[in-house]
Amino acid sequence: EWVDMPRLLEELVEDGKALSGSRHHRFELTCEPGLLLEGCESELRSAFSNLIFNAVKYTPGDGYIGVRWYADKAGAHLSVTDNGIGIPAAHIPRLTERFYRVDSARSKASGGTGLGLAIVKHVLNRHRAQLTVRSQPGQGSTFICTFPTALLRRAGTRTARPPAS
Ligand code: ATP
Ligand code: MG
């Protein structure tokens, strides 16, 4: 299934704005037009919404949330950047473990179970994609999902293999 990433991400940013509500995060969406990804739309939707919802949860009101979809020589990247509370380096390697949360104070304040990033990791594995996390406590976080070039297509270009219907 070819997933129209710019359209999907527009929807997910709208969901993020709804979740932000009166906290008024400033969203910015930047997409390479017509860059499609072969994958399972419902799985990708749940993975990317987890990243965007985390950004909303762990960024104070009026904060910035940037979502980008772009390609380079390494593949295509979906990045979610925020200028929220950030994550201490020691926790980063364990974030995708089921039920792992950075501290109980933030967990209580925000609700949730600690499964979001485990789902992200699982969905990315199924798409041969990698997750990269960069974060500084008090500065913010960036989560980058990198997909192999073999899974990309530009709308309007020919492909050797016809899109699955
Ligand atoms: P759930 O997603 O199940 O509702 P959760 O958000 O706590 O709960 P994960 O999404 O797996 O669980 O995230 C794990 C932990 O990583 C979070 O508890 C939080 O401490 C930290 N974290 C995730 N995303 C961010 C972020 N954008 N900024 C700061 N901390 C984050
Ligand atoms: Mg989460």
TrEMBL record:
GO terms for biological process: cellular response to phosphate starvation; phosphate ion transport. It is found in: Cell membrane. GO terms for cellular component: plasma membrane. The keyword Glycosyltransferase does not apply. One of its GO terms (molecular function) is phosphoprotein phosphatase activity. Keywords: ATP-binding, Cell membrane, Kinase, Membrane, Nucleotide-binding, Phosphate transport, Phosphoprotein, Transferase, Transmembrane, Transmembrane helix, Transport, Two-component regulatory system. Member of the two-component regulatory system PhoR/PhoB involved in the phosphate regulon genes expression. PhoR may function as a membrane-associated protein kinase that phosphorylates PhoB in response to environmental signals. This is Phosphate regulon sensor protein PhoR. The chain holds residues 279 to 443 of 443 of the full protein.
